[in-house]
Design brief:
By secondary structure, the chain is mainly alpha-helical. The chain contains eight helices and two strands, in the order αααααααββα. Helices cover about 55% and strands about 5% of the residues. A two-stranded antiparallel ribbon has the order 1-2. β1 and β2 form a beta hairpin.
């Protein structure tokens, strides 16, 4: 088949593997919303619902393929604060907020003050985030 399509055998094999994705994710790959590299990383997850959740997170946060592979590798290690440093606790808190708000969140702490940065893609996305935070969005 590879010779007839003028493609390499690994490329054909990888494309066939993508057929194991849920239909919704196959559509996202076909539309170019999700890359084949991201999809292959997500394929290592067995649960179709978890696959969809990961794909949505990858798309919303704009994660790289490498970051997606890391995310898939250690699903149970999120949310635990390691003993010691404030930076670990802040990083965990930022990850938790990022998961809850479905967008990128950064927390920076200086000597006297800190900042929380929440990314949004559009006004509608900002309204969605504000609703998640329990804020009124009349503007």
């Amino acid at each position: 088949m590879a010779e007839k399509l003028s493609r390499s055998r690994p490329q054909i094999t990888n494309t066939i593997r993508l057929l194991r994705l849920p239909t919704a994710l196959q559509s996202k790959v076909a539309a170019g919303v999700l890359s084949a590299g991201h999809a292959r990383a997500i394929l290592s997850v067995e649960d179709p619902q978890r696959m969809t959740e990961l794909a949505d997170k990858v798309i919303n946060l704009g994660l790289s393929v490498r970051a997606t592979e890391e995310l898939v590798k250690k699903p149970g290690k999120k949310g635990r604060i390691k003993p010691g440093g404030k930076q670990d606790a802040l990083k965990t808190l930022a990850e938790t907020l990022s998961d809850k708000l479905n967008t990128s969140v950064r927390i920076k702490l200086g000597l006297k003050k800190g900042t929380i940065e929440i990314d949004f893609a559009s006004v509608d996305d900002m309204k969605r985030i504000l609703n998640e935070l329990g804020q009124d969005t009349k503007f």
